Amino acid sequence: MKAKPAAAPRPSRTRARARARTTSIAAFVVLAALVPTTASASGTQQVEAELPYVCTLPSGPLPATVRVSAEFPERALADEAFTPSGVTTTVELPDQAVADLAARDAAGVRAATRLGVGVAQNAATATATWRGSAEPAALPESGPLTLVTKGDVPSVAGRGDGDLTFSAGALAIDLALEAADGTATDAATAGPGSLTVDCVLAEDAPGRGLLATVPVGTGTAAPSNSPSSPSPSGPAGTSGAPDDGRPDGPGDREAERQSERSPKVLENTPGTAVGRDEVPPCRYDEQHPPTDVSLNAYVTGYANVKKMRGAAYLPPSCVLIEQGIPVPGPPDPDYLIFDTVSYANFHYQERRQTPPFEATFLSFDFAPVKATMVLEQTDTMRIDSRMKMSMTDFSTTTDTYVRAPLVLHVLDLEVNGTPLDVGSECRTETSLTSEDPDPSNFPGDHLVLYGRGELLIGQPATGYLLLSGGVLSGEATIPAFTGCGTDGEDLDRLLTASVSGPGNLIKQVQGQTCAIAAPVFPSPTNEGQCTEDLQPYEIPVAEH
């Protein structure tokens, strides 16, 4: 919306009031429409559970307290997938655990959690894994150690009518240790090693670990089996907590019937698959010649905007990667460690940016707002990976951090089909920012995404690895906007108030890379990694 210049040096009060009213209405409509009505008609239920656990540390079994918070729908339909949101796992380890870590010459830790959650409906059960990661935490001088992890969790769908219950089970805590001499715990720097702490639910846990109950079907909602009023989560007192994997009923036939009725746990909540003709080209050219270590891949995903309680879909984007050479990491008696530093750039029409993408929100069912945006690099992305191979069972874990300086550039903005002229320079003042685990070595504004890959002998790799791809996640602060608006109409404060702020979760999915120097083409015996013209064969699908 452009403001018309006044016809005289001092406009009449009537005109001034009219223009002010027009601008105020536009601001009101934008602000109202940027708050999407995403809540389900059935509403949500907030879960706050505090559970006793027993965790095994070097000094032996120790009591611990685990608090789980999340939002669940109040009701769901059969075969309707939903995802618990806002999942936070808080682990409080006793002071003896702090002493154990300090004895390993650690001054701080970075934690990742894997909580097994039993999902039960009627007599059938399934198990989901809730993963979370935490910011670095210093070891306290006295008292317990508190670790707070957040992350995305699998979607779940009930197979028919009946209460769907969620119960906490076994918990694993992966601790990357920071050395007492100040050496940072990071994929590219040394440290005193790592430790995995296994925890089991205490026998006296209320409700046998029950977290929430979601009625499934069209009938009247059943009373909530909340942690404050625990009750058995299945018929005859059966629990939805993860068990040892044995069938619920006797005999293989009964196990098969139970499997057919088990709730569906969707480890990935995919978006829509995209065809080859719908993605931008992703190939090296004369301006960007490949080297012997060049890779290319597509990435896609979702970025939450916390203030608007919504998410923007990031379409498949091309990334050109120069893979680093692994070098020996810090010595560790239990692991063989290698560190790798790689570099990457988005590649779209000879620019270091994503393709333009649209985000549309709707408020009150009548006021659609559509914004067209791109993410633009201000410098090269850095990828730090640390691989650790166990000297006992030769299993490997790889922790990867991607540091990306990216500004958000708004190209177009429409309110109810009416364009608002944001100009050509509407963008965030600085890069999206994350709390970096090693700020002294990596200063400045940039986004941090993290992924962990695991590989057991004889089994496929899981999680994220640079070559095979996977899920990377992080949390970003969106800075204030600048340069938005034309002809004297300043939209900076409007966009800043509506969008900018901390706590915005980002989940990216990278596809399998194509190694330009040694391409793998599809064949009856091999899955394709490269197309004939050396583009990535795999186009990943975004996950919520």
Labels describing this entry:
single chain; 544 residues; mainly beta; eleven-stranded antiparallel sheet; ten-stranded antiparallel sheet; 29 strands; 9% helix; disordered N terminus
Short description:
Helices cover about 10% and strands about 45% of the residues. With about 550 residues, the chain is mostly beta strands.
Fraction in helix: under 10%
Count of helix runs: 4
Oligomer: single chain
Characterize the largest beta sheet: strand count, sense, and whether it forms a barrel.
11 strands, antiparallel
The count of strands amounts to 29
First-last Cα distance:
34 Å
Spatial extent as radius of gyration: 26 Å
Derived from helix and strand composition plus strand pairing, the structural class reads: mainly beta
Residue-averaged pLDDT = 80
User: What portion of residues belong to β-strands?
Assistant: 35-45%
Question: Outline, from the CA principal axes?
Answer: globular
Low-confidence stretches: 1-42, 182-191, 220-251, 362-367
Q: What this model shows, in words?
A:
The protein has 544 residues and is mainly beta. It is built from four helices and 29 strands. The chain has helices at residues 13-33, 95-103, 252-261, 492-499, and strands spanning 44-57, 60-73, 85-93, 106-121, 124-133, 137-138, 145-150, 155-157, 162-179, 194-201, 210-216, 264-266, 294-305, 310-322, 327-328, 335-346, 357-363, 367-377, 381-390, 396-404, 406-415, 418-420, 427-428, 447-455, 462-463, 470-478, 481-482, 501-510, 514-515. The longest helix is centred in the N-terminal third of the chain and has 21 residues, at 13-33.
